[in-house]
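Final report, results section. Input specification for complex C-07:
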Amino acid sequence: MQRVGVFVCWCGSNIAGTVDVQAVSEALKNEPGVVYSANYQYMCSQAGQEMIKAAVKEHRLTGIVVCSCSPRMHEATFRKTAAAAGLNPYMVEIANIREQCSWVHKDMMTGTEKAIILGKAAIAKVNLNAPLTPGESPVTKRALVIGGGIAGIQTALDIADAGFPVDIVEKQPTIGGKMAQLDKTFPTLDCAACILTPKMVDVAQNEKIRIFSYSEVTDVHGFVGNFDVKIKKKARYVKEDICTGCGACVEKCPMKKVPNEFNLGMDNRHAIYIPFAQAVPKVATIDPNACNMLKNGKCGVCAKVCAAGAIDYKQKDEIIEEKYGAIVVATGFNPISMDKFDEFAYSQSKDVITSLEFERLTNAAGPSAGKLLRPSDGKHPHTIVFVQCVGSRCAACAEKGKEYCSKICCMYTAKHAMLTRDKYPDTEVYVFYIDARTPGKNFDEFYRRAVEEYGVKYIKGMVGKVVPEGDKLKVQASDLIANKQLHIDADLVVLAAAIEPDKSARPLATMLTASMDTNDFFTEAHPKLRPVESPTAGVFLSGACQGPKDIPETVSQAGAAASKVIGLLAKDKLTGNPCVASSNELMCNGCSTCERVCPYGAITYIDKEFRMPDRTTKIRRVAVVNPAVCQGCGACTVACPSGAMDLNGFKNSQIMAEVDAICK
Amino acid sequence: MQVNEYKPLIVAFCCNWCSYAGADLAGNNRLAYPADVKIIRVPCSCRVNPMFILRAFQRGADGVIICGCHPGDCHYTSGNYYTRRRMAALFSMLDFLGIERARTRVEWVSAAEGAKFAATMNDFAEKVAALGENKRLEDLRCKK
Amino acid sequence: MKVSYFPGCTLKNKAKDLDAYAYRSAEALGVTLEEIENWQCCGGVFTTSQDEVATKLSSVRALKYAADREQPLVTVCSACHNVIKQTNHAMQTNKEFSAKVNRYMANDGGYNGEAEVYHYLEMLRDLVGFDKVKEAVKNTLKGKKIAAYYGCLLLRPSKVMGMDDPENPVIMEDLIRALGAEAVIFARRNECCGAYTSVESPETAKRNASAIVENAKAAGAEMIITACPLCKYNLVKNGADIPVVYFTEILAEALGVKEDTDGK
Amino acid sequence: MENNKYLREEILRMSGVNTSKCMKCGKCSATCPAYDEMEYHPHQFVGMVEMGDIEPLLKSESLYKCLSCFACVERCPRGVEPAKVVEAVRLVAVRRQGANRMTANDVPETIEEDTPQQLLVSAFRKYTK
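Structure output:
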């Protein structure tokens, strides 16, 4: 029999407000095995932990039950406390009487009653606990960064800086991501290319960093410290190591009418292309859907003009297999489709554009060489209407918009409006906004400058309808402050489209077994305390894949993710989770059922010699679990027909005891 | 303590990664559900042995609900698929034994779905309460 | 194929041509419109208030008629379609409402939203198929630039009506193309014409209707088609200087059944 | 400002609308084709019903200006459905004794040769109980 100590936490009034903590500790005093029961304001505090340690010594406790907040919150804390008191840390059980009791029940009587039952269940379980010792596994000292935008670039640079090799996998032919498409950046208005491209060059020149551009992760296996990853390097039909990026092939390519995705289809590129001048790697790529040579074997001009002989029409997709200790997800975002918002006539007029298209229109490397001209007729627009929150904060219809605030639109729209007024003072600029959300260093000052110094007309209200007629866009909108409906004849309408996670994120999350929220943003291990870690050990989050973010936030999160990766890779060995499966070989009948259900291949079969009661020996086939590979899901324990397989920490007998305690 | 109003006894098995976290989130957001629901934490929904459920009914539980990650999102890749198949078989057997379908349920609740967790528990508790006490499998020897 | 047909008040009076063309075109496409016996006026507007029951009973009776015959219920007039479809949706989704309605329906047997409601356009798209319509064209409308004016009732509320994308509909444009003409898309095609307010504030209707016509003309339209007698009335009344006709008229014309064989 | 809780509840029940979902973006009023005829605009209907300030709405001509075109319902980013609120307030008004806005006597002077029946039917439904 264990000697169990029960510690009931008040959590200030968080628990004590709806649970009579005194009554709980009194009621649990008489449970089997309990030799000590107490309550205290904050069990997790220094004083609370000291109290536990003292009780362990004084009452020679062998098991501890803490009735407190969720084990997801403080289980680790109390395990450390137990270890410090000389107990095995796995002799601690938590009864969750805060998140799952005091916070969800209103009245003291029901709260107290339930807390007592949860406490009894934990006591029943701890009575059957056994000391556990975690196994160890080695760490592969190499990191994988998925996504080569500013988030991935910064993470990779920081990890490489600490001396660990890093691979970046980017699905586009170049790294750089969305930031490479931007013109200026708020609130300082430095040019995006000027601050990004040096970092891209750093990445290219860093000998610790390898770039797999035009590549995708296709398979991930393993666990923290030991991931096995397959990367598909898509055929670009150009030998990357030979191509010098001179661009002769691009110049001569006869297929000139391919919509240029880098400029969001506002101009054309060739079938063989380098996305932009500062691309990294600066290597040409052939678009197989546009190239005549690849489609029907007629052409071959690029191969003829390539002095280096880098063109290879026979190139095939290549699969690279590599081991990694840590994986950073930096898959970023995209603006949502405007298909469902045709009240703004996006599909009907070329002069209704998204903000990202506006970035390209004002970018010196963009389709109009930096001159702000209407896409339809190339004329200078004199009246521009910016519409905020298109698809953001939209709870009406899930197929249409996003319920969340996209966070970056208020600031980039202020930037667009300000820059337009600065460069073209004869232009009238209206911004329709619901709320101007500008929390951030120097952000509100920036937005106010757009209004006060640059004369941008901010109107609280929304645009309801845009009607293209003649060469004007008739904008019908509300001005809530003046209580008027406005009719503006605009030349250009710019929609601040909501942003959403990249479509590649969902299948990637499945591969990584990393969880996502309902919007397909990756979930962090804890929203406040572990913001750059995924709940899946060894997987880290960087940038907008976790939620909408601007550049400064992305860069700081990228650095934080890198430091977590460095902390992991700096270890030689990882202590594993001791809550793994184990087979009772006396009961095992060697049927292989467990082997088939194990998703990790952690179970193997060996032939083992047994001494029989009649003193003969017999060789039997029995299951053996590799504790370093087992992740402790328990699928095998249920599949096992003879009941030989059990899960440490969640034994059949323990869960059964909990059921009994609850159903008493 | 004898209360006049009938209170069902509901056991909820929640996987550690999604549903238990979802239940915590319901708590963080103070989304109420009946205190009749008692949660047992398991690493994965596939850890739930049909024996546990039978035991719960034997000991007088009125309803048992198993919550796991959404299909495709299992922390252990495929555990919830096992759960889905195992429970389909078990529930049809329980149905045969006279334990109504509404007393057993499998739900997918992610770590981000606190509201769904509370709504699911409210709904389940209501349906179970409507069925009244479950005596079919109760083992009277277990009663004090 | 036989379908139950709800013509509505206007089609039996001021919009008889809308009705006649619908009949003959359907016949030419192998669909028989069986007029619901003793149909009652839909009321013209679906009263959204949940406690309005009596005003929706005529729609329920029509729905019940179609459901009993296991036929789709087809309407041509946008208003009838809107009212009947919204009523059916309420019968399917609002338990309290359907319970109240069924107290009135006790003698006829209950009704719980079993009928399927199609607008004539949806019938052409989903039951006949625009490709079949295209095959049946005898006099192609090639060279005509036709703008489709949807108004509000056909499309909204889209969650209930479910006919097409409420901001970028294509169903009438697809019909126009199937008949060989060129579809002119204009932004105001889903804006309101002014509806019933032309009774007491003709200026609203005037402003809305003329903006719609101007916008269609600016986009290059030579003709506007509509599915709603009130839309047509408001557009014509407020000085449309291009023809505004029912979609069934151009359909009948293309199918070669515009003139009745009896010369009517 | 009055806060008529009873009427507020009544209107929310009739319309089935939750006015607290409104985030005050004004898109309903931006999209309204009858805006200029209205004294109180769609967003004000939602806001004033939410505050229980309903009497001014009941007295307003705006009730009869809404075209029920549902553009606001379709385009509201929060799914508030302002047209249903307007309709519920209108019904509260016309259901009061002697509040019929149009009678059969008004018809002869309204109709012309080409007036469609639909126009009168709709108008009656909107203007009377």
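The two ends of chain C are 25 Å apart (CA to CA). Strands of chain C lie at 2-6, 32-35, 73-75, 117-119, 145-148, 182-184, 223-226, 244-246. This concludes the modelling results for the funded period.
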